[in-house]
Recover the amino acids of this structure.
């Protein structure tokens, strides 16, 4: 988490962090996972009254493109033939 070592962790810093991962070519799922992990991590200091609010709150997940691969007839035959 070296991105945060020089900056105070704030909502804008978190947005910059997520954008930097997008710019590096990480896919949407990876960026959403980073957000989810940091959000979970920062819940603890809020519960312990170390900080007033979770800086990750209010930042929405990005929409993920979900692609479902449908097997062609040829692929189905190949899969079935592998089992024999």
């Amino acid at each position: 988490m070296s991105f945060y070592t020089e900056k105070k962790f704030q909502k804008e810093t978190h947005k910059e962090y997520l954008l930097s991962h997008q710019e590096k070519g990480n896919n949407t799922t990876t960026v959403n996972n980073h957000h989810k992990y940091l959000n979970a991590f920062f819940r603890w200091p809020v519960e312990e009254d170390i900080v007033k609010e979770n800086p990750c709150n209010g930042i929405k997940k990005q929409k993920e493109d979900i692609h479902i691969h449908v097997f062609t007839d040829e692929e189905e035959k190949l899969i079935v033939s592998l089992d024999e």
Summary: The chain is about 50% helix and 0% strand. The chain has one domain: 2-61. Helices lie at 11-23, 28-47, 73-83.
